[in-house]
Amino acid sequence: MINKFFKKIHKYIIMKIEDFRDIRYEKEENGILTVTLNKPERKNALSALTLLELWYALDHAEIDRQIKVLILTGQGDAFCSGGYFSQDALKGIPKDHLNEVDWKDLTSKKLCLKFWDFQKPVIAAVNGLGVGAGFNIPILCADFTYASENAWFGLYMIKRAVIGDMGSTLLLPLLIGFRKAKELFYLGNKITAKEAEELGLINKVLPPDELISYTRQQALKMMPPKSPTLALKLMKRAIHSYYRTLIENHCDLENEYWAKCIRNKDFTESLNALKEKREPTFK
pLDDT tens for residues 198-235? Predict the structure, then answer.
């Protein structure tokens, strides 16, 4: 019995904050935690390591009672350019955490559910382009989203010959209606921050130099003495409770369809086109 206990503990090795490489984790005494996607050289695209670090950032923030609100933003001129498709996808992942990477979870279900289970407010401050996961995380996983005037969004999955992920094919039609959601999914059109605000996808558009300061002001409104912590936590839990099971099941469906897509020749063509910086020619 004791041996089984220690084997279970051995499998779960917590990633330390000081070991984060792809993100910055900055905790302040006032209760604000700022998590910054910190790979500007690739427009903050999410590798397997980035996804793992984000999961652990939420894990640390959840149990830290001093943290009241999480702000998520990007370094440089981009928020996030989506998934990082590269041959060195495992590069940088500590050996102790390799077994936590689930290659069957093509739609980042694990991280999506971690955001939905996170009980503290999450505010996304979108400072530049938000494509793919850079669309899904701030718009579908965060509680509030503010964007700078030079930010823009795109659901480019169709250009990569795959479908929407992170529960987006369930949630986006609920947010903006079926017809508009299908238009964004099927055509992969780019939309400005102002258009996203008009669609109700984000809360407010701000001048670039006011984005973070305004976001911080809003964060301070959601912590003592201005806001009751328990009521806010239970409010979020109540709002999320009905959709939580739906999202979990829907991510399984998206994973099934993603697996079919990446076995298709169109997916290979999309990657070749991306590498060669040209438009894909689908068959």
Answer: 999 999 999 999 999 999 999 999 999 999 999 999 99
Class of domain 15-276: alpha beta
SS3 243: helix
Phi, psi at 142, each rounded to 5°: -85, 160
The Cα 232–Cα 6 span in angstroms is 37
pLDDT score for 97? 79
CB count in 10 Å sphere of residue 54: 23
Contact, 164 vs 210, CB < 8 A? no
Among 20, 141, 121, 127, CA closest to 67: 121
Residue 2 pLDDT: 45
Residue whose C-alpha is closest to residue 247's, from 107, 125, 106: 107
> Structure tokens of 106?
């093509």
Sequence-separated (6 or more) residues with CB below 8 Å from residue 195: none
* Element spanning 79, H or E: strand 78-80
CB 201 within 8 A of CB 180: no
Whether 67 and 29 have beta carbons less than 8 Å apart is answered as no
- Dihedral sign, CA of 205, 169, 232, 127? negative
pLDDT 10s digits, 61-88: 999 999 999 999 999 999 999 988 766 6
188 and 156 Cβ atoms separated by less than 8 Å? yes
What is the pTM (predicted TM-score) of this model?
0.91
- C-beta contacts of 173-177 below 8 A and 24+ residues apart: 175/139, 175/199, 175/200, 175/201, 176/200, 176/201
Q: What's the rounded Cα separation, in Å, for the pair 52 and 63? A: 17
